[in-house]
Amino acid sequence: MASTPLSSSQLDAMAARLHARKAQLVIQVREVDEEAAETSSRQPHVEVGDAGDQGEARIRGAIRRAEQERDMTELRQIAVALERIQQGSYGLCTDCGVVIPLARLKVQPFSERCVPCQEKFEATHPNGVRIGVSL
Ligand SMILES: [Zn+2]
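^ thats the input. predicted complex w/ zinc ion below
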């Protein structure tokens, strides 16, 4: 069983980054929830005949929900990454077991796969959420 290629100080640094990112995402997700609650409570008072504004609000809401979805996916990946730090398998590709370059982990601390495996995974999961690609 291969173990993590990172030193304990590198692992601490990655865990700190993951926790910081997690805190940020939790706030973002909560904000979308609060905004949605506010919008729906305001809905009955919307003036009839202002279809343009309503359409715009609907599109804005859809974008926010898509962003929230992406944030939730990232939160799940962060939870997995933190678990792997605990288990000592962090930094190894989950598919082929090679060491994921530290440079890649620094850009994307929750990377589960090396670049070739990630590309293969995305090619075979076309509907999967692509992290780091903006809408
Ligand atoms: Zn791999």
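The chain has a mean pLDDT of 86.
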